[in-house]
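Narrative of activities, Objective 1.

The group set out to show that a structural description can be obtained from nothing but a protein's sequence at a throughput compatible with the screening campaign. Below is one input-output pair from the validation batch, recorded exactly as produced.
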Amino acid sequence: MDGLEDCGTLVILATNRPDILDPAIVRHGRVDHKIEIKRPSEEDAATIFEIYLKNKPLASGHRADKIGLVAAEVLYSIHNKHLPHSGALIEAIVEKATSFAMVREKRREKPGGISENDVLDAIAQTRDQESAVQ
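Output recorded for this entry:
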């Protein structure tokens, strides 16, 4: 990477496996700033659920913040410790919940929106799928 300082180039390296990087690549002087992005905490997960649910049609009487709190609690329960908790996982769970609600609405032919149970069912399905892979 010699000469990059002269042309103003910025190089960003990213990995989800820093433990397997060659030490010569990340030694001091080559990588000036290291930033670790940790997995979201349960509180962070509740906020992420709320963000993803905010613009979705919710069932009557359901609120994104309340669903987010319950979903995060269930996601971080002992039964789901093996899941790779991340924003991407939460997004996938919300998309599954959306699909569940859409199928249900199509059968009923009336609007209903996403319920807390849809999100909990999506978490359970995700857990079961992850368990089957391991």
